[in-house]
Amino acid sequence: MPGFELFGELERKEVNDVLDNGVLMRYGFDGMRNGHWKAKELEAALQHTFQSKHVQLVSSGTAAVSVALASAGVGAGDEVIMPTFTFVASFEAIMMLGAIPVLVDIDDTLGLNPDAVEQAITPKTKAVMVVQMCGSMAHMDALQAVCNKHDLLLVEDACQAIGGTYKGKPLGSIGDLGCFSFDFVKTITCGEGGAVITNNKDYYLNADHYSDHGHDHIGNDRGAEKHPFIGYNFRISELHAAVGLAQVKRLPEFLEIQRRNLNILKEALADIPEVTFRTIPEGGEESGAFFNFFLPNLEIVNKVLKGFSDNGIDVCWNYYNNNWHYIKEWNHLKDLKSLFPISKEVKDGLAYLKTKDFSKSDNYISRNISCLIKLSWTEEQVKVRASKMAEVIKSALYKF
Ligand SMILES: *Cc1c(COP(=O)(O)O)cnc(C)c1O
Fold first, then answer.
1. What's a GO biological-process term for it (predicted)?
2. Catalytically annotated residues
């Protein structure tokens, strides 16, 4: 996945353009910038890549989720449904707005279970945030149907699935709003950065103003801009956007490598009956950022991971006891360890976390192995890795 593996001349050229004129700010300074508008150019490129009418760059993927929700009017006391398996950023972005994250089970797509979503809906529910984890997607038609039926926003966090598609549509472009991260380890990276995409002009204008102090961006005189509402600073810089601009031009090349590598790994394990792959919904195509599979139980998973590490197979994990990506170890959230006071409404709204049964999620996450797919691996290296992986798994399963 990490686009930084293949940094080259194109990234250097785009960054040098910015350094040569000295304008690091994405807005204004028209006279000084020699025609360089890297953030604007990147937004235009992403409109094309993600087939979306509007794109607003922001400072991170976490900011993208928060800005997306705020732009659609989600705020204090609203409930946002999200999955148990994601990155901590998901609940952070919701709580930043004074809203309440409602965690529900995943299914064997490793994404939100549509039935669990429907059961969690209350009169306070405003939005469903689906997280397209590890390069693939949840059952999007079913989730869309639940959202339509209950008149809820569908927000897509596609931070880990840049370039994946569902029924021909880029992931991120299916919901009312989509969110991307271009942080240091994502498929397209610019160091720190993110994007909100939407076809809704009002949401877009809200995101544009909100992410830059509420400035209305009307006219050429920055100082004369007015403030239709209160905003904050979630801007991207021209330097970051310059790196992203080079990387987005190379996305087709990155995706081809990722998918080639994924297919080699999948083929090598396909004939082991105890290995099952995550479900890819009908009409979906993975981005190839990760390879995910299930084994019969956690004990075998641990045995296999030990074997991988003994045999030099790196970048593979199980997320069950992981501090960053799974509800089980998020004690700071369960215990409401906030640096500053949070409202009683949010505290009460999160009390369920101490008692809710997430055994369905436990079942999938405990049996899962997730391997990062690198862009720098040669075809030959992936083949060697794939056959070693198959050997380790077979010996963990069949040798005692
Ligand atoms: C990386 C990531 C984020 C956060 O992105 P940052 O740019 O690091 O803030 C959010 N959600 C998911 C699923 C991610 O993988």
1. polysaccharide biosynthetic process
2. 186
Domain with 143, as residue range(s), is: 3-250
13 Cα–ligand 1 center, Å: 27
What DSSP designation does 133 have?
G
Q: Are residues 190 and 317 in the same domain?
A: no
Tokens at 28, concatenated: 């204004």
The verdict on 78 and 197 lying in the same domain is: yes
| CATH number of the domain bearing residue 58 | 3.40.640.10
As beta bridge partners, residue 118 has none
* Structural domains of the chain, count: 2
Question: What averages of pLDDT result for each successive group of 10 residues across the chain (400 residues)?
Answer: 90 96 94 95 98 98 98 98 98 98 98 98 98 98 98 98 98 98 97 98 98 96 95 98 97 98 98 98 98 98 98 98 97 97 97 97 98 97 98 92
What is the atom index within ligand 1 of the atom nearest the CA of 62?
Answer: 9
- Ligand 1 atom closest to Cα of 160? 15
The position carrying tokens 């700010």 is 25
- Mutation probe of ligand 1 site: the residue of 62, 112, 370 with most atoms within 8 A of C-beta: 62
Ligand 1 geometric centre to CA of 61 (Å): 5
Same structural domain for residues 73 and 200? Answer: yes
Q: Which of 226, 250, 274 is the last residue of a domain?
A: 250
CA–centroid distance, residue 59 to ligand 1 (Å): 11
Instruction: Round to whole Å and give the CA distance between 334 and 357.
Output: 13
* Closest ligand 1 atom to Cα of 63: 9
Instruction: Say yes or no: 212 and 263 in one domain.
Output: no
d(CA 271, CA 275): 8
